[in-house]
Fold this protein.
Amino acid sequence: MATASVAFKSREDHRKQMELEEARKAGLAPAEVDEDGKEINPHIPQYMSSAPWYLNAERPSLKHQRKWKSDPNYTKSWYDRGAKIFQADKYRKGACENCGAMTHTGKACMERPRKMGAKWTSKNIAPDEKVETFELDYDGKRDRWNGYDAASYAHVIERYEARDEARRKFLKDQQLKKLEEKNNNQNGDDGASDDEDNEDDLKVDEAKVDESKQMDFAKVEKRVRTTGGGSTGTVRNLRIREDTAKYLLNLDVNSAHYDPKTRSMREDPLPDMDPNEKFYAGDNQNRVSGQALEFKQLNIHAWEAFEKGTDVHMQAAPSQAELLYKNYKVNKEKLKYQVKETIMDKYGNAAAEEALPKELLLGQSEREVEYDRAGRVIKGQEMALPKSKYEEDVYINNHTSVWGSWWKDHQWGYKCCKQFIRNSYCTGSAGIEAAEAAADLMKANIARKEAAEETPAPTEQKQLATWGTDIPDDLVLDQEKLADALKKEDERRREERDERKRKYNVKWNDEVTAEHMEAYRMKKIHHDDPMKDFLH
């Protein structure tokens, strides 16, 4: 089975090599060694990258058969936090206008804004930060501990050591006190004191027990599938025997329900108890804490994603659903960080700035300023208000005040001309007078209109004729002519209904009198009149 790692020149060389290997197996020839002086196992083929586990080989051979050299371009180093590389003596072109460092601009400067920046003073130039770029390999990008300083864990160890030391000191003091009391008490209470001392010693010894010895405390041996069914196995118990059973915490029959088959009690048996003193709060407490809550949120995210059109199913493809949820959380945090950075870039970060000392905030000076009763400065100079890095008091279109300095009728405007239009040109006092005159005129017109509506003018009631004209007051109708006109109107209507009753020799007279109009009105049919059927 052994194979040589070199090619043989002839069949004779191959035969000699086989005999040498047989002699080595029998122990009649010295073993072959490699370049490092170690014995080569003849049972391992030299072309294999790793030896099988059953051959008990010390190491694999032929490193060139696998990629064992890492890429020299990749690194596992991390950023040197807070490191400085160079500090200039004077301002350099392109540096930060505030502190003078070349590694950032004035917009991203994290120092307190100076009264006069380093660009104009060339003093106190801040050192340049160390900016590094790394090309991480596959493992380096996914190493969650990359850049972690193990020395930062020392304070945790020190805290626990200090706690243990204080505990040992306290127990030692307690033992000394007990010994002193025992020596002082020489009366007949020796038996009781000995019992108490024994109990204290047991408590001390129990506190010194290592946690590793208590790991198997809750295990019980249980026979499972022995000759009467199987082998003996170890079953971990659900609770420590010294604990009170959950169904004995509250003996009220109306308290939380206990299911003996599943040994579950979902509700809290003691809801009115102090949470700090409560040992058991029901099985539902496990559903809203730990990984159960994360799994619940993962399911909810999968349902919502499926409703929005994403092809994801928690039971069919759990890895895909978990990956989508992880990407969702990363994108959410990234978006939240971008919004925060945008707001901080636009408005600044007051929390990052150093607080001014009380000597500057509440300080006193020798500057004297005198005011009159109206609040005007008589003597001295009034304190100038500090300006921010944003534009202030910028007046446009000949205005003498800024937009928003005047408020009226739920509208902002300019105080100088009392106009509500932002891009308007300032008209000064003349515009204010014209606006007031226009407002007064409008009020007068509204008042006059309201007064006119309150006292309406009397209207003359006229009797209108049926055909829409006015009837004169001095109109007198002749009854005979009216009767004759009514008779002719009836004949005309009959002729209109029946063309056969119309005569050939028709005498036409187009003269219309008031009696004819009255007869027409009396005989006219009003189609929209609900009483038309009762008129004729």
User: Anything to note?
Assistant: The longest strand covers residues 219-223. Residues 101 and 128 are 5 Å apart (CA to CA). Residues 1-9, 204-218, 222-233, 462-468 have pLDDT under 50 and may be disordered. The chain is about 35% helix and 5% strand.
